[in-house]
What we know:
The protein is an alpha+beta fold. The protein has one domain (32-164). The protein has 3 helices and 8 strands.
Amino acid sequence: MHRVILVAISCLILAFSSIGQTSRKPSFASYPAAVEKKQARSINFKGDAAARTMRTRLSEALAGGVNFAGHYIVAGWGCGTGCISGAIIDARNGDVYWPLPLYALGVRYDGQNYADEPVSYRKNSHLLIITGSPGVKDSEKEKPNGKYYYEWRGKDLRLIKFVPLKSQ
């Protein structure tokens, strides 16, 4: 009888500890990346019409060096009031990736101000955080404002966690 009670209590403790862990917000340190100094000489524009249309912004970002996930560069530009778009450049070879969450994302607006840092990232981490509403496909409804935590997987972003933000 005592064993059954002990096992039940142990299971409850494990269940509650795992619930507490999933409610934590992801941190940059939890998604480490080794930073490389290697850098491509130019953007790979071959076969990428979108990259050719953003030639100046992408080239300027490449010149700024690695700023994300060890050997990548996040490039961004405005697309209207409260809207930014972006791409991720592989600094090893100049390839450009166009993750959907960075396409025309809505910057968080609290009724008075826009978010100071709508896209947060670090050169030594695979974690990217969007504060606002990430880009969606044409057929999708706009996503709610919040903090979206993504892990960079080498060619795309994978949503890890969403934390809604109160609207004003």
